[in-house]
Write a structure and sequence with these properties.
mainly beta; Jelly Rolls; five-stranded antiparallel beta sheet
Length: 118
């Protein structure tokens, strides 16, 4: 299978934990890796908010924050990746998830750019 670029948009992220990307399993439940090449979080409110983005690790342990309590001024955006790349995995049974949470309800729109099946 060829590499596949994808853009995923998650509007209205708020105070409830939200999955913004889940690594799919490959064909016939084979292992699959994805490379996250960009994450942008945009504050669409008139006041500043904070955002947390973290990896929910596929093995149920070692969950880690990418950003925690990152401030986004009113009407501004935060480029979370800043030129870095992030590898996420699915072992054929369980997959990594990128999850997000904001300090105010329905306040942040998040866009994730991914290269799947690498």
């Amino acid at each position: 299978m060829a590499n596949d670029f994808k853009r995923l948009c998650t509007p209205d992220v708020g105070t409830s934990l939200t999955t913004i990307y889940a690594v799919p399993a490959g064909a016939s439940s084979a292992a699959l890796e994805s490379i996250v090449i960009g994450i942008t979080a945009a504050n669409k409110t008139t006041t500043g908010v904070t955002v947390d983005i973290f990896i929910d690790n596929e093995d149920g342990s070692n969950d880690v924050y990418i950003v925690k309590g990152a401030s986004i001024p009113a009407g501004a955006a935060l480029e979370v990746m800043a030129g870095n790349k992030l590898v996420l995995m699915n072992d054929g049974t369980n997959g990594d998830n990128l999850e997000a949470l904001a300090s105010a309800g329905s306040s942040v729109d998040i866009t994730v750019s991914v290269l799947e099946d690498v």
